[in-house]
Protein 1
Amino acid sequence: MQRFALIGAGFIGAVHAENLAANPSVDLVVVYDVDLSRARALTGRFGGRPTDDESDAFDPSEVDAVFVASSTDTHAAHLRRAADAGLAVLCEKPLAPTLAEATEVVEYVEASGIVAMVDFNRRFDRDHAHLKRIIDEGGIGAIELVQMSSRGPSLPPVDYLRVSGGQLRDQTVHFFDLCRWIAGQDPVSVAATGSVLVDPALTGFGDVDTSVATLTLPSGALVQIDSVRRTGYGYDERIEVMGSSGLVESRRQSPGNVSQYSSTGIVSTGLYAGWFERVRPTYAAALAAFVTALETRTPSPAPLRDGLRAQAIAEAATASLGSGRTETVVY
Amino acid sequence: MQRFALIGAGFIGAVHAENLAANPSVDLVVVYDVDLSRARALTGRFGGRPTDDESDAFDPSEVDAVFVASSTDTHAAHLRRAADAGLAVLCEKPLAPTLAEATEVVEYVEASGIVAMVDFNRRFDRDHAHLKRIIDEGGIGAIELVQMSSRGPSLPPVDYLRVSGGQLRDQTVHFFDLCRWIAGQDPVSVAATGSVLVDPALTGFGDVDTSVATLTLPSGALVQIDSVRRTGYGYDERIEVMGSSGLVESRRQSPGNVSQYSSTGIVSTGLYAGWFERVRPTYAAALAAFVTALETRTPSPAPLRDGLRAQAIAEAATASLGSGRTETVVY
Amino acid sequence: MQRFALIGAGFIGAVHAENLAANPSVDLVVVYDVDLSRARALTGRFGGRPTDDESDAFDPSEVDAVFVASSTDTHAAHLRRAADAGLAVLCEKPLAPTLAEATEVVEYVEASGIVAMVDFNRRFDRDHAHLKRIIDEGGIGAIELVQMSSRGPSLPPVDYLRVSGGQLRDQTVHFFDLCRWIAGQDPVSVAATGSVLVDPALTGFGDVDTSVATLTLPSGALVQIDSVRRTGYGYDERIEVMGSSGLVESRRQSPGNVSQYSSTGIVSTGLYAGWFERVRPTYAAALAAFVTALETRTPSPAPLRDGLRAQAIAEAATASLGSGRTETVVY
Amino acid sequence: MQRFALIGAGFIGAVHAENLAANPSVDLVVVYDVDLSRARALTGRFGGRPTDDESDAFDPSEVDAVFVASSTDTHAAHLRRAADAGLAVLCEKPLAPTLAEATEVVEYVEASGIVAMVDFNRRFDRDHAHLKRIIDEGGIGAIELVQMSSRGPSLPPVDYLRVSGGQLRDQTVHFFDLCRWIAGQDPVSVAATGSVLVDPALTGFGDVDTSVATLTLPSGALVQIDSVRRTGYGYDERIEVMGSSGLVESRRQSPGNVSQYSSTGIVSTGLYAGWFERVRPTYAAALAAFVTALETRTPSPAPLRDGLRAQAIAEAATASLGSGRTETVVY
């Protein structure tokens, strides 16, 4: 049984609280939030003690592991505190607003020797994980071409976007991680192209809403990632990997399986309307993998350094967007 | 808030307990089982008071509704007791081992005026319900031909089958109900054909493991239902309805969406290995529909009499299996 | 090189003329029709000598094989004439209007020793043939359940239907043959149910437009065939075979592969509008198989007797439609 | 009736001869080849007079239109000769080995006023054309992102590749044309990345076998094209266009529709083994469109200048491959 403290009781904190409560190997003992009433709302439904005193969440006599689901600017501080207390930590991404800060905190945490994981939940998507298993077992030979689509149904609020760091750092970063994880290689260079097609306001702060990044792996394999903020047809996520002897695809997902035939065609259930329902099961699966690592004393399924590397690719991609050149990734 | 007593803490009782605990409009107050330790196992996880005193479950001062998930031979007694206490009741099917007993208890309960529902959970399958909605909105015109497949992955234990009443009463009965529900018509006649292809032991008690039933609706529309106890490829459930202007299909369901392309073909995720994972969400949806009916004082979404009618079709189908003749259904 | 005479220059004769002309092992030497101008229309496009003198088509010094594509009531006479002349013969189905006449002519032709084939073209459908290959190679184990759908887009003219012999003899007979061919077994009994849902005029001559037949094979395996004269969504043909270890399906066919995603669903290319485009390639494939049999001196890929057996099943099915009983098939 | 001369009786010439013979509005009168025996082989099967005298093919008293299917280095000369003779011309691509030569001949032909078409046959693929129709009718709103895959099953002979001009000029050029044609816009810039993953010999002459090109349209819409010389799973061609309100896809094509279900997954018919069977119907469709333009005196469905523009994009893409920069396309 692993005793957990949850840091942060906002939207994503509530998702994690529900998964912590449902995991049979987890005891949710503390929920911390600067706003005590928010913490209380979660402990009322999922158990544990609410607190607005941060030190309650980092008390090694009561807690084995900390789940950091607070706002991005406080991640680094909470990671350090977990390291100081010798507690295992599962942390939402990104680890820090800038790559420099993130690098600093990762080195700090690594020095402490605690088990730490960045919550790259998409690695735990059932279909993506199945795709990787097929590749790892040699099902398609050596990887030669990867395509990933990351397409949200609607533009997030412009106020959110303004401070997000840009589409490649905020949205595509998940897929930069998937790329490394699936291929087992660190991209050497990246070329990115982007446009503002949805809301001209993005131009004001140098962001784009539709972009394409092409990465080159050390083996020469190529990776294409398209990122779209607003589709007209729901949430669209898809991975396709071509190897020397075959191809494997984690297909678009629909929440239903109904088809209607008429003289004008066949109409089938569309894609998920939003990203959350599609992605929801991955949070519980990521948590379960972290808990298993703790119980079996095996390495973190997503070391903090993986978060750094994904951020490094995002930096190079963002630079390429400006320069119109292929940029080398500096890890 | 509806206060519920759960009667029966076996496998299916545990499923219902979890759904009762998760439904925000339900307060699970009592779990009754003849074996108190089984009741306790559920209340420990899902809340409520365990008891082996049946009268605790039918106390109107504490309970608004009873969920009957006990063994089949006690359903009738529990239904009567709920009627006597004036409690709403949601009951597992079948209502009683024989049609005669079922008819008697349904009339008793109807006379009492309580809200009562038979747990025809497949009506609440997201895809089947979507299919019905399309039909009800005129999407395919008048129904002309219906096909339903009910195919389990493996033969249930022969000891279970021996007392099950036969494949048509035990397995196909769910689809007899779906047929009535989808078409909004009561079949007038049925012809059934069956074989023993999996285990010759079934011949000893007159059962079959593979069968086909053809029903005729009052409109002349035809319905084919195939029932298979053991496929070699997982759990296979599928409904197709052809109307005068189109066709709608609730397709086979896979738990994943991965496809692998090679020179020998395209391999995609197969069907669910078992029936339970496929059908699981329907239990919570059926419960939610019952609770909504209670809260909005609207009619039962599956009156007990619907259970009777499905049983009547099963009787006629079973008779046809023996006679080799098309048999009229007597309601 | 096989020298062919074509008997009959109507719609289906023109289809065969085109295939004869395109087959590199065939020399189309004569086209016979009672109406010389129709014969001429074909020889103008596809070569050969037009004639309205039947004896030209059965002259062994000029002709090796005869393709009988004349009207049904003359098939038997042309078959006998081919037998008398010692010519190989490929004949459109049915062999004769009644089972008795058909039996007589088959015995006559068999006695002559010529190579004769009934044009069961659906056996040569690429997908159906692939399905059979998988079954024959043991891909699904022993056959347990077969489903076939035969659904035309629109009701043929009532004048045609009046003399067609009824839906089971006219339409379903192709699938009775497919059933025998796929399973490699002769059905022992059949139960059929039918309705008039499209045009009440059919009631006047005892026909139906929507029907279901259930056949039992000697192994106990069950076969369902639905036959529909008028769908609202195009031409729909589909075969599914379940065995003891798996299932194989020759799926519905679309003439295109376009999908459109929107917020209301995914719209894909519908089915073929008519039967002819869907079935067209099977005629050339059937001819090619016949020619190969001639050239390699191997047995007919569809002996005339197979035509008889399919007709015998149709007779029993038609009887069942009237009696409401399962009927034994008499071969 | 349009009288055609066919120039070139090699592999692709034979394909065109068959289509010319089958087109009811075409009279194939002359087949020219420097090797008279090759011309004869075609006229023997498809009609017309064989010749090795080029002037027979450009005689306006006998010929209305010329189909140029000769070797690439003679295309320009044949185009000029058709222009001089005032004959309509349908020409295989590319129009000339270099963009400069191609520009020169296009201007020469345009000045002559003849109807001229470059044989961009993929525009006439049934599914691609359907996709374009949906877009043109506003089915997905304004184009925002296009993805095209061009993937051959096996590496062409290295001797062919050595003189092909490189993957982007030789293979991707078809898709540069499709991009312009679908979007109705001329790309302003292109960035390309490529690798040698299949045969190191390509490095010797600066070619790649796996590449990705990203184009930017004047509207800001982005286009990704991946080009692969050797898949391990057959011929793979696919177009996907996302617009402001939806997405449309011309899907991968299989030559069959069989699915086999087992406990380990669902195996379906794979892709076409080679490009030719997949693309074959487009040649006849392109010819038909040309003939229709002649008969109805409407503009060429693919003016020669379109060939130039596609070549211009290929030049810029090839330059980007070397420079690592986004390159502007110069038309």
Protein 2
Amino acid sequence: MKVSARNLIPGKIKSITNGMVSSEVVIEIAPGVAITSVITKHSVEDMGLKEGEAVKAMVKASSVMLVTD
Amino acid sequence: MKVSARNLIPGKIKSITNGMVSSEVVIEIAPGVAITSVITKHSVEDMGLKEGEAVKAMVKASSVMLVTD
Amino acid sequence: MKVSARNLIPGKIKSITNGMVSSEVVIEIAPGVAITSVITKHSVEDMGLKEGEAVKAMVKASSVMLVTD
Amino acid sequence: MKVSARNLIPGKIKSITNGMVSSEVVIEIAPGVAITSVITKHSVEDMGLKEGEAVKAMVKASSVMLVTD
Amino acid sequence: MKVSARNLIPGKIKSITNGMVSSEVVIEIAPGVAITSVITKHSVEDMGLKEGEAVKAMVKASSVMLVTD
Amino acid sequence: MKVSARNLIPGKIKSITNGMVSSEVVIEIAPGVAITSVITKHSVEDMGLKEGEAVKAMVKASSVMLVTD
């Protein structure tokens, strides 16, 4: 399977917080470095996501902004 | 300055490709690991972005999807 | 600090509605004109956002659509 | 016609820059205050957008971030 | 009314799940084919959305990714 | 491979328009019904996309808005 989204960052699920519709999933991509994702609770359930599981964070290039000091 | 976007990943600009409206900026966040961003060429010019410069990639949590094998 | 997002609109927080994961924050940008934002509740807490506070709404240009009558 | 996008900000087209695929459209929403939009060139053509024309900038609430000083 | 978003897919509301801030609305676009949308609960209320109602799913072209096997 | 994005709509590539940074890819999902995607030209090249090829359009639920008459 190939995906056009250019950013796929591997990590491990650190925490899952479920709301009624949305869930916040925090992925540790390096010691002390985390990426936060908000997806539907239905996706968390359908994918069977669990803390400690290996996942990739996927981001479309047009959703990435840049910041300088 | 504080920003609600939960993901700020530090890196260094590896390449900039300018189109007429959009620019693709590739940021190296670890050896061999890159994040691609598409922003306006006007932002590249206004920020004075250059290859080798330190930047942060910024992503809103609701733009992050998850993938498992 | 410089940001590639081209739209930064100053206003004042009119209301905050917290869900379990997401929060809706309404910002008044002119008398009777408001912008609605949905961010994570964690961002609301980390930024210490409060009604009446001055904030800027930030939007990436590629997230802006146009409508005509 | 009703739209779920919560943000509809009226303005006037100040400039249009066409690329091969994308176009940057700048909308003046108040004297000296502008919103930048990137849409497809096909949309600019199909809508027949022209400088000086009245339009509304439309933004989904989940695309709005917040910034404080 | 004309909209720059290039994707407008007609369907019928199959289900609405309300959270405190966000709502998940599932739209059947063909027998057995559904599109899921997450919008604010305020939009669901303001539009008076109900199961069985005819709606269009609207997506900006820059939010569409591609996948191949 | 499992993806959190809830919308995967199968179709066939009808046309590809390449800019310098972005490409517009139109996917026919039913006779006379098309979905337009804007992705990077690099993704078009890396995936080797060609007219007539079978692909799926992928959209995150939070990128889907609703419209009623």
Protein 3
Amino acid sequence: MFALGNGYIGMRGTHEDMSGEPGSTLEGTYLNGFHETEAIHYPENAYGLARINEFMLNVPNAKCMAVSVDGQRVGLESARIVSYERSLDFRQGVLVRTVEWELDGGKRVRIESRRLVCFGRKHVAAIEYRVTALNFGAALRIEASIDSAVTNMQAGDDPRVGSAITGPALLDDGRETTGRGVIVTQRTRNSGFLLGTGIACAASGVAAITASDCADGRAFEATLAQGETLTVHKYIAYVSSRDVAREEVAPLVRSELDRAVQDGFAALAAEQQAYLADFWAQADVEIEGDDALQQGVRFNQYHLLQSVGRDGKTNIAAKGVTGEGYEGHYFWDTEIYVFPFFLFSKPEIARSLLQYRYAGLPKARERARQMSHTRGALYPWRTIAGEECSAYYPAGTAQYHINADVAYSIRLYLMATGDFDFIAEYGAEIVLETARIWTGIGSYDREGCFCINAVTGPDEYTAVVNNNYYTNAMACMHMAFAASIADRLRSERPEDWKRVAAAIGLDDAEIAAWRAACADMRLPYDEALGIHEQDDSFLSKKPWDFANTPAENYPLLLHYHPLVIYRHQVCKQADVVLALLLLSDEFQIDDKRRDFDFYEKVTTHDSSLSSCIFSIIAAEVGYADKAYQYFLETARLDLDNTHANTQYGVHTAAMAGTWLGVAYGFAGMRLTGGGLRFAPTLPAKWQRYAFRVHVHGGLLEVTVDAGATGYRLLNGEALAFTHHGAPVALSQAEPFKRMESQ
Amino acid sequence: MFALGNGYIGMRGTHEDMSGEPGSTLEGTYLNGFHETEAIHYPENAYGLARINEFMLNVPNAKCMAVSVDGQRVGLESARIVSYERSLDFRQGVLVRTVEWELDGGKRVRIESRRLVCFGRKHVAAIEYRVTALNFGAALRIEASIDSAVTNMQAGDDPRVGSAITGPALLDDGRETTGRGVIVTQRTRNSGFLLGTGIACAASGVAAITASDCADGRAFEATLAQGETLTVHKYIAYVSSRDVAREEVAPLVRSELDRAVQDGFAALAAEQQAYLADFWAQADVEIEGDDALQQGVRFNQYHLLQSVGRDGKTNIAAKGVTGEGYEGHYFWDTEIYVFPFFLFSKPEIARSLLQYRYAGLPKARERARQMSHTRGALYPWRTIAGEECSAYYPAGTAQYHINADVAYSIRLYLMATGDFDFIAEYGAEIVLETARIWTGIGSYDREGCFCINAVTGPDEYTAVVNNNYYTNAMACMHMAFAASIADRLRSERPEDWKRVAAAIGLDDAEIAAWRAACADMRLPYDEALGIHEQDDSFLSKKPWDFANTPAENYPLLLHYHPLVIYRHQVCKQADVVLALLLLSDEFQIDDKRRDFDFYEKVTTHDSSLSSCIFSIIAAEVGYADKAYQYFLETARLDLDNTHANTQYGVHTAAMAGTWLGVAYGFAGMRLTGGGLRFAPTLPAKWQRYAFRVHVHGGLLEVTVDAGATGYRLLNGEALAFTHHGAPVALSQAEPFKRMESQ
């Protein structure tokens, strides 16, 4: 919950001074993209299975502090806690903790720590650590060190947690004491990375302080009078050879520490505040009428900002940089859940997420060849550096929709920003290469329908099926978008077109084949029920016996063999219902309602990706209570630990889904080929809510209250959209309009 | 090729005296049913996956012999082979080998070995080893020993070969020298078995022989004059605690060795001959006109006899006891391929195979619970001692048809033998318990059809599909048979009925549900093509591009990701075509021909279980040339190593398929509810063929030549059947009839 991060460094919310104490929770420090690799061993092998796992490593814990009073360690073994408080102000970005200890014998100390991971300095974190002698005068010793003997969690029965390695993964490669701390260098066994972890420490507050080296750190001793405070500032830097050349790792640790020491803790805290002020000015969502939800929404936004990689080489893991669930892998969660949040709140980060995918194209091409596709690129279902890491292909590699999801995010990026330069330079190649997979995997059946067989859609309780509606519909969108990109490039930027087409060997016949496949795409629809079928066979399966499934048997995946789940009509998460959102214009509202009604009954929401989507569609089809209920489940999922696994890391997709729930859900925002539109409703419990979106070059603030919706152009030239179907135009001359509620 | 076995001991055909020589092939000695267990580790776990692998261990090599002349070892390092011959006469059951060596320096010795694994003595094997000084007189030393430092093959890329353990699997538990040899006791690490391996040796042939102990064996030394022969007899016994109590292992080794020594090699060879004379009198297939095929057929029959367990605790592994392919696992191969051969050739062995399944019922019940079936039993797809060992469930646990296959074999047993006592005592409980799975897994669709979803049929290139024709049709047969068994028990043996029904909690409603499911079973049929669909979606898939698949890309499973294979119309093996055989009466001949025509085009026969079935149906539908061609592929599969993997063990199912190809194929034999029938044809190349079948209490000889078919009742009271539809009745009064060919 109190994990800190800056999109690169992630520090779990554990205490500086209680590592290894009885009852202490999992320590963890992670660096986005920094990973080890290990061969995947299958008990029964098959051709083309993912061979190499990339997984996030737990890196040295550089926040360790240890306090002694007259030689007596302050900790649970010989002291008790008198008072305790922690807080994290999302405007400050500093984790504040105050503890009062009473030691055996009665001496009382107060420890105040302030910790930050610098948003503005990728490699740097810092701690201000203040110890006050409350009722005594005595010798105080504070050790500030690095614990480099860390290990990763072990995989157990839950497939969502843990890695295959045991014991320390980082091999020592040298350590250097600097006179104010230490720099530890380590290397990974297989992935060949070098990692530098450094600390630089200084103490102040009393006259006579003795400083000396201690094991992997620096110790400060002073004799405190009653009421006096000894303060230690500890600056931390992590650099790996994934960021810079190997020989620059240690120098960069040193220079980042130098700069931090020179600037001082107060300057870092001020930078932090400035960064966040800018962020909230663009991204803040306000909710009046439900403080718990307000907290949940901002908590989630804050964690997204902390978790997302923004250097074009990293992405956002399912658990951000907060825990080892899913081994630090990136999934489609990025494109379908997280990307829109950043696109509309902090577009430069959205762009860097797309650049990450561009960087992954060569690996995706390799993977396509392994999967017997002679052309095109197939993105990995889960990965860090681009390798397909899914060791259970039915809910991994089989999810070919990842290609369409990436293309969808590029399409949305183009619609929101109009940035065709990006398309010409990066996006087109991604979209075109990944579109080719559909004519590779698909085929025409005897009725002349274009079918996509043996794939898995978003719903992982139904695997390796034919004509998954979501996949087929998204493939249509993808191929049509690819064809339109090709047309536009050809006419607007013939040089770029020539370059891209030549680079990937694309010809007109292939583009024509995409258009034909789109036109003939099989999109399963059941006339009798008037609903879209999740796949060719979903409706023929036996409905799951929910009435006789005890609560403790959820999530089903931990209690039933995959075959048992697969042969039933039961969904882990939104599948058709997600298509209703992403391809919103292709459905009538009655279709959406029938689909929602049907799929709601068979969905367990065992995936944290589900409730937010159901909330949005419920809002759209007029189920205000359900929309609110599903939103509640999403918005405080981690704060209330409703999935009982937040200890393995936060759920970044659900966090982004919360923002989607406000903008797409309650405010009915859609950005489609038909333009931008809103259809705001106000949840009964709320008095007012407001959010902001970057779109079409402007920053728009939307404020909804009981009577009306206010639209204000905060910057930008002009903006046009619809409000419940009625056209609205804002401009610098007329930057605000208030529209009556429906 | 020269492996020996007796259904318990299996010795690969490696030489006694060349273990470890350069270029020597895999040494291996196996004991049917003797296995180690090891946890199966999945890179991504799921509920209910098979947890424990049982795998056959390579046990100590007790056939080792080493010869030295004047201290010079006779072997490839310091000698060359002058002449060499090996032979195995299937009437003798003794592997004979003669080698003449010329040592460096010019001395020549002849080594003649005769080796047998006693058919009549489960635990015993023996070697007669004769060394003759051809052109010299000199000191000769022969060491007869046990090599107990053996290991299993390692698993590699081919999923069909090797195990997960590395290094020696057997831990030493003691060794005892007996004055004529040694008894080595070892134990397994996990499965907790004790193994005793013993040898007892004696030498003869020259006057002065010095005997002494040597490392793990016994050494004999003598000075030979030119032309003299030193003979060593080595008796071997293997006993494990899977056969007897732990404390009886070593005593039984000792007493079996005692008895063998006392009886002597000649007596063992005579026993062997008598056993085989009896076997061939019942089982021999004669073919005139194709010596290579004649050899293939008998080779296969002989290997089946060598491979099959017959103690009710063991079964027949995919590779018999000849190699480590498929880790010594038993599959459905037993019931569908091997069982009919023994049923008609040596019915007491067939019965013991069914008893093995009866012994496995408790484990099969456990497995059914793990698979969320509240009632019934689900047999493991692959196993040794009853545990589900399939580590890739789509081509393992998903093959629910295993239950119907077992029931089918019991039904065939009852039809052939009329042995209802066996049904009452064992068979009914198997059939009823396994039938319950179908109403557990199946469900009614919206059209009121009973569907079986998410299973895999025999064809492993199509996995986890809905309404696999074979599975559904066999489930029908199974449930109908179960209901009829229940009826018959109830009326003929009310006490047995009460006992069985009470033991498993079976009531009339459940039996009624079976009958209803049968009546409503979905059996996919395509009206346009007039063929049975392999499953609901098979015909909608893209046909495999055979034209552009190079020969080296077969078997496909080693060159394409499962998803690539699964999404195409391509079969590894007979699936619908197998149903045409097993449920013969349910199809018209035109149906069979159309099905054959269609499925032949899409089948790779990458499985060795395929060609024999295609041969049989080809014969039935009048494709004589194809029948012969497929028969050729089956009959000499191992002799000619056509699948390029005979080194990992023989293909017992294909071997039995050869017999099926003669009886079911060319002779058109069927035993169904409609009775016994023949419809013999004579392959163009043959002058004559003959085979024998135990059926209805008699032993019938069928002889087919160009003009007619002769039916002779060799023993039994009377027998009635049809010949090309015409009734034939044999009796003691009239034991022979000759029927004109069609």
